[in-house]
Amino acid sequence: MDTSLSTTQIVRHGFNRVCSAFTKQMKQHGFSRHKTRFWIRFSDGWADVIHFHRYGVSYGVPLDNSVSIRVHFACHPVELPSPIYLNGPSSNELKDSGGDAYHLTFDALSWDTYDRCLEDLVRVTHEHGFPWCASQRIRA
Q1: Tell me: the pLDDT tens digits for 55-91?
Q2: Is residue 1, in this structure, part of any structural domain at all?
Q3: Model-level pTM?
Q4: Is residue 2, in this structure, part of any structural domain at all?
Q5: Does residue 76 lie in a domain region?
């Protein structure tokens, strides 16, 4: 990565890279990317939603080279409300099977912990997002 880039450019590139990689992982589950931070799949009259929120900004400018992400889930019958409201769990309140928090941060300049972050983005979705969306269908 060119170190002459601004922190904003570095973080934007890192966030876009992890979002693109996540898109490839979720495609096999029927999700497609909508806008910058949403993935949606429509199935049997339901819309399942995954949303990424990026932390570490002040007045829209990144504080450093870190990309920190909160994943939030939603599930809505028939069609999406506008605007989409996130009615499900988010990664800040979720733990993995060992009782640990998911590692959803990486350094966009050095790429330190990028692979671990991407792996945990996928893991939190499989372990919590998919089951929660399925439970909403059962309750309806």
Answers
A1: 888 777 889 999 999 999 999 987 777 888 899 999 9
A2: no
A3: 0.91
A4: no
A5: yes
